[in-house]
Amino acid sequence: MTLEPLRLFFDVTAWAVIGYFVVANGFWSALLVTAAWQMVQHRRSSEEEDLRWLLSSSVLPRVSVLVPAHNEAATVGESVLALLTLEYPNLEVVLVNDGSTDETLDTLVQRFELQSIHPIYRRVVATRPVRALYRSRLHPGLVVVDKDNGGKADALNAALNLATGTLVCAIDADTLIEPAALLRIVQPFLASDDVVASGGTIRVANGSLVQAGRVVTPRAPRRPVAGLQAVEYLRAFLFGRLGWNRLGGNLIISGAFGLFRRDALRAIGGYQVESIGEDMELVVRLRRAGLERGEASRVVFVPEPVAWTEAPESIRVLGRQRDRWQRGLTDVLWRHRQLLFNPRYGAVGLVVTPYFFLVELLGPVVQALGLVGVAAGLALGMVDVQIALLFLLAVYGWGLLFSIGALLLDELTSRRYEGMADRVLLVCWALVEPFGYRQLSVVWQLRGMVRAVRGRSDWGEMTRQGWRGEPFTMPEPVSRPYPR
Amino acid sequence: MTKHILLVDDDELILEIAEASLARVGGWEVTTACSGEEAVLKASAQHPDAILLDVMMPGLDGPSTLARLRADPATASIPVVFLTAKVRHSEQLQWADLGGSGDLGAAGVLVKPFDPMVLANQVAEVLGWSG
Amino acid sequence: MAGGLLLLAGLAELGLLLVLLAAFLAHSLRVVTATLPTGHRLVQLRRDVLRAAEGEVRLASPTSRRDSQLYRQAFEELATSVSGEGAERIERLAREMGLSDQAARWCQSRLWWHRLRGVRFFDHIGGGNDLVPARLGDEHPVVRAAAARWAAHHPSAAAAEHLVAMLDDPDRHCRLVAQDGLIRLGAVATEPLAAYLDRGETPGKALALALAAATGLADARFLWPGLRAAGDSDPGVRAQAATLLAAVAGKRAEQGLLGLLHDPIDPVRVAATRGLGVVSSWELAPHLAGALGDRAWEVRREAALALRRLGPAGRLYLRRALTDPDPYAADMARQVLDLPDRAVGSLGSPP
Q: In which order are the strands placed within the sheet that holds A114-117?
């Protein structure tokens, strides 16, 4: 038996993988260019902009911030106050106590002098039973809903029923929103009637100084797990999300911070409780409905408004999160496979969805194939060392360039960190990423996809650090930037 | 005797301008605080003759700070004037009820942006100080 | 072949990596070493400007281009934080420093972001009466919007005319700035806007915005345009007309509102009910009580809130409604009666 066919097989596979990544990364480079261009334009038009004009203007629609809370007694008071003092003139905060078993509700009642009111509301979306409704004697814009436990999606739906704003801002209970973020994230809705959702940048707060629900001093994470995610988030948001604005728009708005048209959300029945990739599923459904009915359907990403979130610090928890995200992605794409190459959905069908199938979904598979193939090929002497190195350059080398590029873009535009130490630390995390983290991500993603195919739908719990190191347990959040 | 005023605002720029204005144009002694908590501490330590208090501050906001000041007998009698950013008409009506509700309320409300040339006079007028 | 490609790719990537890293580190270093002195310089500058404005010291001229930029920043920050005579003095100072001349040059630049900078400078600090109006017709929408804001701060008949014309602007953001600007202009905008509404040939979207601006001005002159718009085929326009009639007030306006109370489209009835609440006349209480039984949730809610805001007369109707045979009316009355006082007055502005 000759080894030639085998050698040919390895060769073809290796070149195919390399080719795939050259195309995919080439496309990403194009995204990078449009992202950088948009950043420049954005900075030029917001130079010396006086946001105070907006604060006293009459054109801003009411925003209802929807806050799902489960067993957050230690931090809920602070979080709610931080939300109520955001810089936005027409603001409502709807907090849903999702069947907490600790003193979350009591804390709220005491701190905000809540008064119970007759619990009637418009039942647009079905949810688990609402037990009570509260309004505050101190803060007119606060509404508190007490209901039976049903998970984050169910809690958001309950809040959606109560919301009186034209726009709703869905957040996680521990998201920290910057004071001026709402003023910025609302801009796409002012600029066009065709926008149905907008998103902003999510940054990793681990290691930063947090006080009274605000990030006072941003700092780069000191520990590797969080540090690697910080780089990943920057790359995903600054390139991925921003780049897509001009190419058909995003299919994902992070569950940690996103702004939506309330009526459009209600019209599609709110969040799907049984779905896994809730936030992506929602946006895809929203856009589909909009495109099908000829209503608002665009999704715009605004780089400036920032929300901070806590990234998991333990590898195991992170793994479960990424596993779940890929499961969600697979699930959503399968459910909405009619969009694929469907001209009825315009750029969404012809460009965005194919991208998700071919790159986001297939990417980890191809990467795994490449890794295994190249490693096996080298061991068997079937693959040239040069080809193996080419593979590494095409996949990981290029990826590293993207990371550093993202850091540079961030540095040129937002400059959040104070000293050199934080910046250099981020660069270090970026340099470390290709040596293990990306490969580990692939493993998690594959696991997630296998699970999706098998149809397992267990939820998994995620342990939260909390800002003071006290562990809480909360149903796993589904905020999802693009990991790459 | 020169009046002593405590300025409270989380915006440093406002503090700078107000301090410059009240100290030079009004000729008063001025202390600043950049949060509600700091204001309560400084008020009970220094017993100013009046407090100029911003309404929208993160953490302890204006009305909550006022409540704290009134709860402490040492600071309960210090007159307080609220500083608020220009807001739309409907919300401005609300601040009126924060204003003159007797001894426990604030002496008045002033709007930002203010004129540094006349701020001192406006404050004096609201507080009923002569000259 | 693989070898050649590898060499090429490897060198390219390494090269790019080094360039990016160098750029990153260089830029970071520059920012970090400059930030401290910049921060301090800015604070010092602001103090100097304030003292100069009070006539205490003479302000030194900027020493470098970077310093010039800081001066501009200090001036703009201060100018937007003060009003009245203080603001005028700062404007005078800015002119003496030559900053206004620089802004004037920018207004005439080929580059839109320079024009933007110039217009914004005049908007924040003052002046620019000869140059900014031309920017209202600028080709770039962001510049037009900035010029519109300037116009809103400089009341004049001409400014009002410009803003009314901008209600038709192709860029939505400009249209919104125009709407808001007309409200800020106040009385001087009433006639031009009323004339625009009277002409009756306003395109659909602009009509709603014009009515919204008219609502902010709340002049009796808008009664007839409001009544005419109340019969428009577009429900969005009718809803806006309801809000306008409520702002104008008066017997005739109330009748118009009562008519809209029976509109087939929900949002129009909601606006009409809210409008009746704004008018706040106790004679309307029976109509509001009737609206408690409306089939739409939001109408019932607005009716109940309006009754609560009406005071004792309204409360009477609400308490009566507690025993209403219609469970929806009874429920809503009960919830609104439960509301703490603060929660009733707030969020009365339209969502």
A: A114-117, A130-136, A142-147, A91-98, A63-69, A167-171, A257-261, A195-204, A298-309, A176-177
Distance, CA of B45 to CA of A221 (rounded, Å): 39
Domain layout of chain A by residue ranges: 4-458
Q: What residue type is C9 in one-letter code?
A: A
State the amino acid at position A399 in one-letter form. Answer: G
Helices and strands, number each (H, E), in chain B: 5, 5
Q: Is-contact A305 A298, C-beta < 8 A? A: no
Q: Does A339 touch chain C (CB under 8 A)?
A: no
Q: Which residue stretches of C218-265 are H helix? A: 223-229, 235-248, 251-260
What CATH number is attached to the domain comprising B56?
Answer: 3.40.50.2300
What residues of B are in contact with residue C50 (Cβ under 8 Å)? 16-17, 20-21, 116
CB A445 within 8 A of CB A364: yes
Structural domain boundaries enclosing B114: 4-127
* AA identity, residue C295: R
Q: A240, A269, A267, A264: which is closest to A254 by C-alpha?
A: A240
State whether residue A179 sits within 8 Å of chain B by CB.
Answer: yes
The residue of chain C nearest to residue A422, with distances taken between CA atoms, is C28
- A44 φ, ψ (degrees, to nearest 5): -65, -40
Alpha-carbon span A350 to C206, nearest angstrom: 34
Name the domain count of chain B.
Answer: 1
Other CB atoms within 10 Å distance of the CB of residue A243: 23
Instruction: Indicate the helix (H) or strand (E) that contains A177.
Output: strand A176-177
The SS3 of residue B31 is: strand
A222 touches chain B (CB under 8 A): no
The pTM of the full predicted model, rounded to 2 decimals, is 0.89
- Flag whether residue C346 sits within 8 Å of chain B, measured between CB atoms: yes
Question: CB-CB: which of C81, C83, C89 is closest to B14?
Answer: C81
Rounded to two decimals, the ipTM of the complex is: 0.91
Give the CATH fold of the A4-458 domain: Spore Coat Polysaccharide Biosynthesis Protein SpsA; Chain A (3.90.550)
**Which chain A residues are Cβ-neighbours of B64 within 8 angstroms?**
138
Of the candidates A108, A125, A106, A113, which has an alpha carbon nearest to the alpha carbon of residue A163? Answer: A125
**E strands of A345-387, at which residues?**
none
Q: Are the CB atoms for A464 and A174 separated by under 8 Å? A: yes
The answer to whether the beta carbons of residues A196 and A296 sit under 8 Å apart is yes
Amino acid at A303: P
Residue indicated by tokens 């309960």? B76
From the CB of residue C283, how many other CB atoms can be counted at a distance below 10 Å?
10
> In 10 A of CB A196, how many CB atoms?
26
Q: Which residues of C300-328 are buried (b: 16+ CB within 10 A; e: fewer)?
A: bbbbbbbbbbbeeebbebbeebeebeeee
- The residue assigned the tokens 């915005």 is C209
Per-residue pLDDT of chain B (131 residues; tens, 9 = 90+): 788 999 999 888 889 889 888 888 888 999 999 888 899 999 999 999 999 998 878 777 787 888 888 888 888 888 898 888 765 544 554 555 554 445 557 778 888 888 888 888 888 888 887 64
Q: Are the beta carbons of A357 and A333 closer than 8 angstroms? A: yes
Nearest to C101 by CA among C77, C79, C127: C127
Report the residue from A89, A138, A214 with minimal CB separation from B88: A89
